[in-house]
């Protein structure tokens, strides 16, 4: 019995080690990919810089009704931009709507360019956190809005659920998490080995949000994007 117990323990340790190695490769491959990308809007959007105005306008229209300045309940004090890159969303969406913004981004070379890209308003960007979201811990109660766009595909399911749970704790009273992501049209998720990311079907996102204890209070499909690209959905979560 003792020998069997020892074998089981060794087997569990081997499985845990194998999973850790797989996780390290998954996240490491993504980091290597983005380190090769130019710190420009076109680089952030994979060659689709032309969609940026449509994207920002759609996001603004989705978020505005929740804000106190528009009759909603969400304060405009502090936002967090997740997977912020050089600050495209911070500059064009969040800073015009919030007093200050924090940015969290995996690659330091993007953050090094961020204040220059954002320009004079970068003085209202308080913190530039260099971290993967699988490791990032928001300060409790700090953020009125946590914005997550085109980045959650870089998290495995278990880490996405854990991230969502940490984000819940990072929200101020009446705060919200906003998710804006590509969605796969088929029943199965797509995996892109070039940048080590998943594109999940909409139903998988909904399931992971539910497992995280979040409630979807609004959902909307982004309009006006070119044909042939993934459908993009926006979710407002509490």
- Summarize the amount of helix as a percent range: 25-40%
Strand/helix succession: HHHEHEHEEHEEEHEE
CATH homologous superfamily?
Vaccinia Virus protein VP39
Number of helices: 7
Low-confidence stretches: none
Form type = globular
CATH topology (fold) name:
Rossmann fold
Query: Hey, roughly how much beta strand do the residues contain?
Result: 15-25%
Rounded mean pLDDT score: 93
Number of domain modules: 1
Q: What's the oligomerization state?
A: single chain
Record the strand order, biggest sheet: 3-2-1-4-5-9-8
**For this structure, what is the CATH class?**
Alpha Beta
C-alpha end-to-end distance: 49 Å
Architecture (CATH level 2) name: 3-Layer(aba) Sandwich
Radius of gyration, CA atoms, in whole angstroms: 19 Å
Structural class estimated from helices and strands: alpha/beta
- Total strands: the figure is 9
Largest sheet: 7 strands, mixed
Can you describe this structure?
With 238 residues, the protein is an alpha/beta fold. It has one domain (2-237): Vaccinia Virus protein VP39 (Rossmann fold, 3-Layer(aba) Sandwich), CATH 3.40.50. Helix content is 39%, strand content 24%. The chain contains 7 helices and 9 strands, in the order αααβαβαββαβββαββ. It has helices at residues 2-35, 41-44, 52-63, 88-94, 108-118, 157-170, 202-211, and strands at 78-82, 100-105, 125-130, 143-149, 171-183, 190-192, 197-199, 216-221, 231-237. Strands 3-2-1-4-5-9-8 form a 7-stranded mixed β-sheet, with helices on both faces. A two-stranded antiparallel sheet has the order 6-7. Strand 1, helix 4 (88-94) and strand 2 form a beta-alpha-beta unit. The longest helix has 34 residues, at 2-35. The chain is globular. 32% of the residues are buried. S-adenosyl-L-methionine binds at residues 83, 88, 133-134, 149. It is an enzyme of class 2 (transferase). Belongs to the methyltransferase superfamily. NTM1 family. GO terms for molecular function: N-terminal protein N-methyltransferase activity. Keywords: Methyltransferase, S-adenosyl-L-methionine, Transferase.
